[in-house]
Design a protein that fits this description.
This protein has 258 residues and is of the alpha/beta class. It is built from ten helices and ten strands. Strand 1 and strand 2 form a beta hairpin. Bound molecules: adenosine-5'-triphosphate. The site of adenosine-5'-triphosphate (ATP) has 11 residues, from strand 2 and helix 1. Keywords: ATP-binding, Nucleotide-binding, Transport. Pfam families: ABC_tran, BCA_ABC_TP_C.
Length: 258
């Protein structure tokens, strides 16, 4: 059976810079996979290639057995690929509910606003958007703050707001770009159990993270990028001992791998 996500020889050049260099790999349905690598390794570019935000120079991305490389981000999203961003993309002057409903609208279509003008199917679309949005807010623990402005949420809660927006899409694959960045140790531990919980419910997750404890603690498999190339792909135990990883990612300092 085809993997949920398959990338093949994915390559992206920025002028003379090879940001992602012939990377291949797969994520199976139900997996929780980590993607790590030093600064500038190409992790975010790889995410952008997968989610349609950056077109590949070469190579293909298949999702659910279909080629999605070259599609616009919203088309990729509608096929069931939800993602968050390293730099939070939140509208501070909109309510928490409205921020998340953007994701639900992406899944239901562009028609909820039709109810304002024509009624008919628009009304059921609007109801579906509302239900999806509240369910996503409930799942991340923000339902009680749905009517507040996003600007009033703490930084940690804004992270969950982003995740809720991706969940509202009803994704088959959830891609998280550095969700623990800026969180303290206890917030990171909470995030770890939250991601574990999603995974236990059947969500397939691809996680880019600098926090090694988080990645090694929750991921079943870890892919390592360095200078745009995939240099390792295996269980956390395997990755911890891989000399190429220690050399490239940790600068040969085994202490940091713990
Ligand atoms: N739009 C762009 N134009 C030019 N160069 C870019 C662009 N986006 C990324 N790069 C370059 O591509 C390389 C990979 O960057 P990328 O952000 O994907 O790495 P990363 O592994 O996500 O790094 P970090 O961990 O610091 O976020 C870097 O050298 C970066 O400067």
């Amino acid at each position: 059976m085809a993997a949920l996500l398959e990338i093949e020889n994915l390559t992206r050049r920025f002028g003379g810079l090879l940001a992602v260099d012939r990377v291949s790999g797969r994520v199976e349905q139900g997996e929780l996979v980590g993607l790590i690598g030093p600064n500038g390794a190409g992790k975010t570019t790889l995410f952008n290639l997968i989610s349609g935000f950056t077109p590949p120079s070469e190579g293909t991305v298949r999702f659910g057995g279909e080629t999605i490389s070259g599609l616009k981000p919203w088309r990729v999203a509608r096929r069931g690929l939800g993602r968050t961003f390293q730099n939070l993309r939140i509208f501070p002057n909109m309510t928490v509910f409205d921020n998340v409903s953007v994701g639900a609208i992406g899944a239901v279509g562009h028609s909820p606003w039709r109810s304002l003008f024509r009624g008919g199917r628009g009304e059921s679309d609007a109801k579906a958007v509302s239900e999806r949005t509240w369910a996503a807010l409930e799942r991340v623990g923000l339902a009680g703050q749905g009517h507040e402005l996003a600007a009033n949420l703490s930084y940690g809660k804004r992270k969950y707001l982003e995740i809720a927006r991706a969940l509202a899409l009803g994704p088959r694959l959830l891609i998280l770009d550095e969700p623990a960045a800026g969180l303290n140790d206890s917030e990171t531990a909470d995030l770890a159990s939250f991601i574990r919980g999603l995974h236990a419910e059947g969500m397939t997750v691809l996680l880019v993270e600098h926090d090694m404890t988080l990645v090694m603690g929750i991921c079943q498999r870890v892919m390592v990028l360095a200078s745009g190339r995939k240099i390792a792909d295996g269980t956390p135990e395997h990755i911890r001992r891989d000399p190429a990883v220690l050399e490239a990612y940790l600068g040969g300092d085994e202490e940091d791998a713990a």
